[in-house]
Prior knowledge:
Keywords: DNA damage, DNA repair, Metal-binding, Nucleus, Transcription, Transcription regulation, Zinc, Zinc-finger. With about 280 residues, the chain is an alpha/beta fold. The chain has eight helices and ten strands. The chain folds into two domains: about 5-215, Rossmann fold (3-Layer(aba) Sandwich); about 230-280, no CATH class. It has helices at about 20, 25-45, 75-100, 110-125, 150-160, 175-185, 200-205, 210-215, and strands spanning about 5-15, 50-55, 60-65, 135-140, 165-170, 190, 230, 235-240, 240-245, 250. Strands 3-2-1-4-5-6 form a six-stranded mixed β-sheet, sandwiched between helices. Strand 9 (about 240-245) and strand 10 (about 250) form a beta hairpin. The relative contact order is 0.13.
Amino acid sequence: MEDPGEHLLAIVLDTNLTSVVSSGGDAGAVLDSILAFCNAHLMSSTANLLCLTVAHGRENRVLFPPELDDGQSAQAHYELFSQSSSGIVRQLKAMMEAAPPDPQTSAPMAAGLAMSLCFISRVSRERPPHARLQKRVLIVSGQGTVSAQYMDLMNVFFTAQKLEIQVDACVLGAESGVLQQGADITGGVCVRVPQPRGLLQYLLWAFLPFGEQRQKLALPEPPVVDYRAACFCHRQLVSVGFVCSVCLSIFCKFAPICSTCHTVFKVKGMSLPKPSKRKRPKQGL
């Protein structure tokens, strides 16, 4: 039997679970499902690796693996996670009590995803060239609407595509067009969980298998990917908009001057302001 190699899973958890609480769900049960899924991944093989990053409020924090002393080793990954589970729960509780989730703001998932890619790249460099390392990222979002981070997320998605890192998305709130685009770009899957209490079943069914195992499963029908772009002015998804011919910025309403590159557009029949030119200082005689 061929050695499957190491399987590195980086989870980016969005703790803004306001949509879960508003629908009658329990935020604590969601966190318990995430921890149970992490244990299942590590128990699947002794060679499996895990990285857990939390996006909460305005910060991102890597909860696992913890920072080890020079004399400690992270080889026993499952035992290390079992010892760190209580600390992870304690940190999550402290973060959510210090900054309660706000439905008006979105957690910085783009930064958390970038941190996960950096961790995967570091682990890949530490492995020998002939080592087989399967790597992927799983985003667990409780808000769905992340159009305000459209540009940042798309840059990270294209980086993951270049690094051949698959990005999956598990959405607890409304459908997310941005996460659907990211999963489609990187070859992953995006699944919306209708009921938060069934989160663990969806995680074990759709996201625990990887590679050839996933291809043999009867996964949910993939949704029609919404490839609308977000405007640069209001960060809202638009079907029809105005595009700057210089920097390709997208706007939902016409503006005579591009707010990104400050290009002045020439429109027939309209008198437009001229771009300000810096005056040269007069040289003395």
